[in-house]
Amino acid sequence: MRVLRTILLSLLAVILIVASVFLTIDGNLSRLTGWYRFEKGGLIFRDQQAQFPKVNWMRVADLHDTIEARRERDGSWWICSPFHDRMDPRAVNLILNFTAQTSLVDTLPYTRELRRRLREFGVESAPVRITLKEQGKGASDRTIARYTLGSTSPWLADVGDGRSVTPTTYMRTDFYGRDKRVHVVTGNILSLFQEGLHKLRDQSPLRFEAEHVLSVSLRRPGGVPLVLERRGSGWFLSAPTPARADAAQVEALLSNLAGLRAVKTESAENVRLPEIPEEDLLQISLSLQGRTEPVVLSIYPAEGEGEPSVQRAVVSDRPAVFTLKAARTVSLRGAWTRVLGEAFRLPVLPKAAWSEIRSRDREVAVSELELDPEDLRSRQFAEFKPEDIERALIRFKFSEFPLRLLLIPADKVGRMDDHWMVSASGRAFIEAAPERVDAFLKSFSQLPVAGFAADARSESERRACMEQYGLSDPAYIVIFARKPCPLRAHVFGYSVPLIRDRSPLTFLFGRAADGEGHMAWYGMAEGSDSIYRVRPRLVSFLSMSEDAWKSRRMCSFALSNVKSVSLRYQKATLRLDYDYLGETWTGTLDGEDVTARVNPNRANYYLKTLQTLQVGNWLDSSDEEVLDALRNPVFSVSLSLEIPDYSNAESIVVEGHEGDLFSEGDSEIDKRLRDAALTRRTIRRKTVTIEIAPSEEMGKNSFFYGRIRETGQLFMLPVDRALRLDGGVLDM
Predict the structure, then answer these.
(1) 304, exposed or middle or buried, with CB in 10 Å at 0-12, 13-18, 19+?
(2) What residues contact 486, with CB distance under 8 A and at least 6 apart?
(3) Using CA atoms, how far apart are residues 168 and 514, in angstroms rounded to an integer?
(4) Tens digit of pLDDT for each residue in 526-551?
(5) What is d(CA 690, CA 726) in angstroms, rounded to the nearest whole number?
(6) How far is CA 563 from CA 580, 583, 603, in A?
(7) What pLDDT sits at residue 453?
(8) CA 533 to CA 514: how far, in whole Å?
(9) What's the mean per-residue pLDDT of the chain?
(10) Which residues pair with 166 in a beta bridge?
(11) What's the farthest any 2 CA atoms get from each other in the chain?
(12) Helix H or strand E segment including 670
């Protein structure tokens, strides 16, 4: 009896040992229990879904080769047998995604007929065997998936949306036991293995994310180094000539570097490269975030004769030799394919034909990396945001006075938006046309250069270049003053800057003869070493004429500034006094109190009409016909304004404060602001009088002549707009 018990316990121990071995190796015990029951539509490896993100080892084998790969700590996959090289991350993702998502379509029973036809399914004649493991608790890895792929199945499976289908593949898996059945599963990754397992190594010499690149250095044989550096959110060319870089061109360069693909990749120990001096190689160096050493790609001269030729290359972080395309190959597709011969007989290939030329593939050739420094320089003359500008000055060489532009900030209390003022020929500021100023700022900030004229490397060279291109005595000087620091105080509705810390931008423009003897426009930023050829259309925005800039709005004022409005007819005068805070009106008609008859809604609407009324055209202030008509105006309206002057509020607040100006909860700041707004402010009084008279052509094209008495500006006003000045604010 004891002997039998001993035998039973020994058998049980053996079974447990075998089970533990299979559990350690395979991660399951189904190898001992037999076939596994799959459900149609269910995932093949559904119980392992949580383990797939932890996969850190894989083996892929076909009839000829076997490779093993392991995931490194940085997430990259490296082939560790039979050679050492980086594995193509696209292949890794395809294998992992296929294994995790493939589901059962159907199962072929393991019958005598099936055994006879196994070669047709490819699971024995052309198999691809894949094994995936994850890091186990001990030193060994644990298998979470193992299967054999056969050939492509003739069935297409519904993906579940009722509209799309997916190809299917024959599969056999012994992961769940001694299962020799053949399954039809969704998905197909067989194209990965068509050219052999060596194609699973990464064919991209450089593998990086564009946002992680800190600098790019490119050195061509016999040429000067080209160096690009990322500064903040922009790119700058630091060699051979310091300049802003063109963002689109840098993006294209990085895209080409990332898209570089080898037509063949070999282990370095199996290839003998020619002994060529380093200065005769094309070298591209990338500095990347998180890496102490740059990644350097060295490309050898082209080999072979004729087209297409190839070039060998090596990279500093991989023991491999890459065979790259030297030049891009193209083909003509579409309707022009049939007339290719005829087209090439023409002196110039038609543009429509060139538009049909497409690359045979998306692989980047070495010739696309050899960029000229000129191609990478920014072709934008000035870089600033139009909304950052608050003042501008244009000085013309042959004009006594400059043209000035001034931004008046929005007045929320007075219900006025931002608006621009213009001053020309030394006269007072008048309102500028916002669309004209916006077009000027936008065009200037986006002005593309026509070419690069010169780059000075010393002060004497700069002076000589400026003399050569007409910039030592420029035809135009344009200065932009940017808005100050955004930290601002609000003084009773007025935004007051606390610190001025943004220097103005100055640009010089001149004319000189180009290399062909033609006159051209050149420009440079003051203090810059670079001179650019600019497009002539810029000059059209530098008009010194007031008429080209001024707004058609008749007068500009804030409602809070209005103290009274006087409407004067030929015989009667209506005076309306306005209280902005109470929005109340009082009135007299030829000295008689008519406050009870004043309709406040009509009066408020009348003020808003004056704020927005636009003239038909501004006229010459010396026009005799208009001046004749206005000797006896039939109507006039006069605005009495009181405008608070906060021009010294900034210095009062900043200079008078002794502590931290921006500390929270400091009541001293509020006190000083109130002092600046109430006790130390000044009031500027202003009167605007608009006079209206009919033209002589009232019967034909009806319009009125008008004048702003204080400035002498003359204008033409369509009759429908003139009638809005009539008033009608009194109830009958």
Answers:
(1) exposed
(2) none
(3) 67
(4) 877 788 888 777 777 788 877 778 77
(5) 12
(6) 8, 11, 13
(7) 78
(8) 9
(9) 78
(10) 157
(11) 141
(12) helix 667-674
